[in-house]
Amino acid sequence: QVQLVEFGGGLVQAGDSLKLSCVASGRASSSYAMGWFRQAPGKEREFVASISRSGGTTYYADSVKGRFTISRDNAKNTVQLQMNSLKPEDTAVYYCAARNGVAAATENYRYDYWGQGTQVTVSS
């Protein structure tokens, strides 16, 4: 089992950048494919980005493609989400998730473990 804690959320202005980190403890994060999801007020949780266990495959939601980059450092048990050119519509609680498997996935039901989330607020 793995425990996930997200860091790096905050309040920024439109156009700014922010980097989220997810630290895994317990079982090594290298045992899992990882993903980032987000949930805005009144909306369902949605997929943002995911990365395979090796880091060789990544997927992005169309809404963040070209602006966000997911990466991982298995030696440090961390997964990062670099967010550039932020927009007000990116405002949400961002969650890190891990799944037992090799391949990255875009569906939230495929993930087995979740962090508590970190708030990202983008002002216009």
Order of helices and strands: EEEEEEEEEEE
The count of helical stretches stands at 0
Please report which band the strand proportion falls in: under 5%, 5-15%, 15-25%, 25-35%, 35-45% or over 45%: over 45%
What is the terminal-to-terminal distance? 40 Å
The protein's oligomeric status is: single chain
Report mean pLDDT, rounded to a whole number.
Answer: 95
How does the helix and strand content classify structurally?
Answer: mainly beta
Taking pLDDT < 50 over at least 5 consecutive residues as the criterion, the unreliable ranges are none
What global shape is seen? globular
Number of DSSP strand runs: 11
Q: Cα-atom Rg, whole angstroms? A: 13 Å
Biggest pleated-sheet summary: 7 strands, mixed
How would you describe what is shown here?
- It contains no helices and 11 strands.
- The chain is mainly β and 124 residues long.
- The strands form 2 sheets. Strands 2, 4, 5, 6, 9, 10 and 11 form a 7-stranded mixed beta sheet that branches. A 4-stranded antiparallel beta sheet has the order 1-3-8-7, with no helix packed on it.
- Strand 5 (46-51) and strand 6 form a beta hairpin.
Topology:
Blueprint: E1 2-7, E2 10-13, E3 18-26, E4 32-39, E5 46-51, E6 58-60, E7 68-73, E8 78-83, E9 92-100, E10 113-114, E11 118-123
For this entry, give a set of tags.
7-stranded mixed sheet, 4-stranded antiparallel sheet, 124 residues, single chain, mainly beta
